[in-house]
Design a protein that fits this description.
It is a single chain. The chain folds into two domains: about 180 residues, Jelly Rolls (Sandwich); about 100 residues, Homeodomain-like (Arc Repressor Mutant, subunit A, Orthogonal Bundle), CATH 1.10.10.60. By secondary structure, it is α+β, with helices and mostly antiparallel strands. β4 and β5 form a beta hairpin. α6 crosses α7 and α9 crosses α10. Helix content is about 45%, strand content about 20%.
Length: about 290
Amino acid sequence: MDPLSQLLALSNIEGAVSAELRAGGDWAIAFHGQRHVKFGVVVSGSCWLTADDLAEPIRLGPGDCYLVVGGRDYQLASDLNLPPVRSDLVWTGGEPIAVVGSGRDARLIGGRLFFDRPNASLLVNALPPVVHLPSDSGEAGVLSETIRLLTYETEQARPGQSLMLEQLARILLMQGLRARPAVSAEAEPGIEKALAMIHDDAARTWSIDELARAATMSRSTFAGKFKAAVGESPGRYMLYLRMHSAKQILLNTGRTISSVATEWGYGSEAAFSAAFKRIMGASPRKYRE
């Protein structure tokens, strides 16, 4: 399984919420960052997107899609110089559609995805802070249709809704993850090769020297480029991957904790349990309850 597919397979999506914005005239809205991924598509019109850690504002046009990751505050506006209104003052009473001004100049559909807490860090670290997919990119078309389907599914209770939402959310995440060089086909070949080695044998405790040699880089260069691309050091990334993989086994099988510990390279159940709790926030036994 390639690294991107494995990251998605390890994700547990807890829910998706969707809403619509219709705006006209002069307007600006400030959105408070929420766990874990905010997403949107411009159906018609245009606006500006600014966000924490975003170097330059992004002009969004019809068909453009965006993801804002990791609880970052962001703003949507017709004019960057306007003082923004808080989003909770725009969406009131739990209504799924908000109208600002005339409501005739721009229409956006968006919402948020959230994951169980242990999985959040694995996914958020794999995504860039902000993903912008222009309408002329191949991914934007897929993403906009996915958001439309998410909106349809969240409008009311439907048979099979939870499964449908999870699958649609995985498609949305796939497009965002593909925009991250480290997990796409456009990654630097050395880092891509190291990632493939890690994912092909995640139970093995790879040394930095082994991975650096495979990437044809010095140890220090490899460690720096790996963290810049993936968001974690090689050691931390491998630990996350092992613990999340072990978690799936614990949740989906009746195997003993000791056998899972052995499979993932730990000589004792105690050492495995300590590492698991450090990453997942609970012991394997407690997590399984």
